Known about the structure:
Layout: H1 21-32, H2 37-50, H3 55-67, H4 71-89, H5 110-127, H6 131-144, H7 152-164
Amino acid sequence: MVRPIELRIPDGRMAFGDVPERVDALLQEAVAARHDEARCEALLWQAHQAGPRVLPVFFALYKFYFNRARYADAERVALIGLDGAAALGGWPADWRLLEAGGTDWPAPGAPRFALFTLKALAFIRLKRGLFAEANELLAKLERIDPDDHVGWRVIAGLARDVAGEGE
């Protein structure tokens, strides 16, 4: 079963920042087309073309690929999204260089997107069997988001479970 791409938070606002009307229309059309993989994917990339720095588009794309077990594609898009968030947020594009005091990480928009995408990237790497890389991401999240604003500890628990099974 293909799950819908959730782009809105409970109060109806778009997750991770504002979205231009044209991009929003394409995203909502993609959600409606989620059972037609090729059409949904094409619409998501049209949304990206219409708004190449719109963070919710990256979220929708990597979630689309993840939900279809296309983990290499999900990872590629997540990394591009992190670059976009860095450009918007004014911090280093290399996530390894991020520091706890570098920005208000739980703040809405680019900072929260970066946290959430680092968590997603850790999960993607776990699914790809890249355990050391996943743990490196989780260690970074522990340093920059010690209060776990995006739920990365759930992924850390999964990583521990996987390691216990014979990493």
